Every structure is written in structure tokens, then in C-alpha cells.
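Sharing a chain and its predicted structure for anyone who wants a worked example. Both blocks are below, sequence first, C-alpha cells second.
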Amino acid sequence: MAQDWLSECPNQKDSRCETLTIIRVLFGSFSFVLSLFMIFVIWLFKKYMFFSQRLILYLSIAALCDSVPYMMGSIENSYGCKFQGFMMTYFDWTCVGWVSVISLNMYRLVKEEISYESSESLFHLACWFLPGIIAGVPFIWDAYGHSGPWCWIKGENKLQQTLRFLVWYGPVLVIVILLTCLMIYLRVHTKRQNRSYAGYNPEEESAKSRKWREVRILFMYPIVFIAISVFPLITRIQMALNEQSSFPLVLMTSITAPLLGAVNTLLYSCSADMRQQMRPSFIWEELKHRKRQTLAETYNFAEENSAAESYLIAREEEGPELEDDS
């Protein structure tokens, strides 16, 4: 049986392995920079005041962290390799978690016209804690290590190959199918609802407009995740059916896998108002405004403290006189 070229990457100098490593580092860095910019924009313009925007913010933070193990490249150190594999699994699952929350929130907005804002703390617990448990499972069998030119769950035996499907590929395949069905359902359902509105009611129209605006903001993020997951899933199926990995498929996986944060940022900038706000001149003016606002708040706080101190000093000076009078 011929040895798969991908499994030999850590031990030999192969131009294909070096190309894959460089691609992952470049696209991981690209995603990191754009995710950081998106987080900055949401903070700067206080978009986080709205629940749907906070969900996008949480997904951006997860995508930012998820790009870090891709930026680390190929690691020879055993402990560093295990750490990279754990980070990749953990932050991949946090991204899946927040994409799923966005999808559930959309479903409730469309069906019941209310959001899951009251469950925000529970979502944080699920999306940041549960991935740690899942990512910790391979440590039980010491399964993290070199997996081609990068570090993840090794594929040296049946147990490790099974872990790959149980920890990642199997659940993600199910989630991608469910998300695809949900997106199709929501699309069909919203079209039917739009046709069913009869007459004109200002309050009803206003509520409908707010709901569809929020749904439109969130709708594309699960679709981006589904699109980015296609090549990794196809590559894994091909590797399970063939002795030799397909370089074009592995290359496309190396390109698309780190791109969630970058594509989300580009998607976020598609609306006309966001394109305007993302202009350097607009950002600079907002930064100056935030600085003036901070200075004004600091000055007011200092004045309040000064007035309070003056009051306390006056009371201390009046204290003895009050005692003498009594």
C-alpha cells in the first residue's frame, strides 16, 4: 500500500506541503486582520447595543481566535503541536456554536417575531464551554499531533480516524445539512409571509420592517459557514475512499478553512451604511468624537469629585462648631 504524501509532510521536504503551509498562514493572517477590523468597527460605532449585532461580534471574536492556529504554520515541537491541534478544534467549534445561535435567533424572529436576547448568557456558556469539552476528548487517547503539514488529530490508526469523524466531521456534516434545510425553510416561509400581508397598518408595517431588517443582517452568516465547510467535508470523504489525498482538494481546503472571519467582514461591509462608516475619513471622525466624549466625561467626573471633596471639607469644618453649639 503506497504511503499517502500528506501524512509524510512533517518528515519530508515536499513542495506541496510547503505550499499548503504558506497558504494557510497567509489566509489565516488575512482573516485575523479583517476580523480584528470588524470587531473594532462594531465597538467604535456601538453596534453592540443591538442583540443581532452582538451575535455577529461574538462570531467575529471566535473567528479571530480561530485564525490564530492557522497563522502558526507547521510546528515541530510536540507540545506546541498538541496545543495547535486543541486550539483549532476548540475555536472551530466556537464558530459553529455562534453560527448555530444566529440561525436559531433568525428562526425565532421569523416564527415568533421575538429574539433570544434573554438567553444570551446561556448561549455564552454553550458556545465557549462546550467546545472545550469536545476539544479535550482527543487528549484521552493522546490523539493530537502531526496531521499532514499542520497539527490536529492524527490519522495513524482506526481509533484516531474515528475520532476525527466523531469530534468534527460527523457532527459538522449533520449541522451543515440542518442549517441548509433551515435556510431554505426560512427563505420560503418569509416569501409566503410577505404575500400574506393584507392592507396597510403603520404599526404592523414598522414591526415587519424591523424584523426583516434584522433577519437580512443575519441571514448570510450561516450560508457563509456552509459554503466554507464544503471543501473540508469533500476532502475528508475523498481521503476516506482513496489511499492518496487529492492535492487540489487539500489546497482548496487550506484556502477556505481559515476564511470565515475574512468573508464575514466582507459580508458585513456590503450594506451601504456600513460601506460609508468603514471609510477611513468616517472612522477618523468617529475616533475624534469618541475622544472628545471621553475627555468630557473625565472632566465632568473630576468636577463631581471636586465638588464632593469641597462638600466633605466644609462639613468637617462645620463639625466642631456644631458640637460647641450643642
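Comments welcome. Residues 53 and 114 are 15 Å apart (CA to CA).
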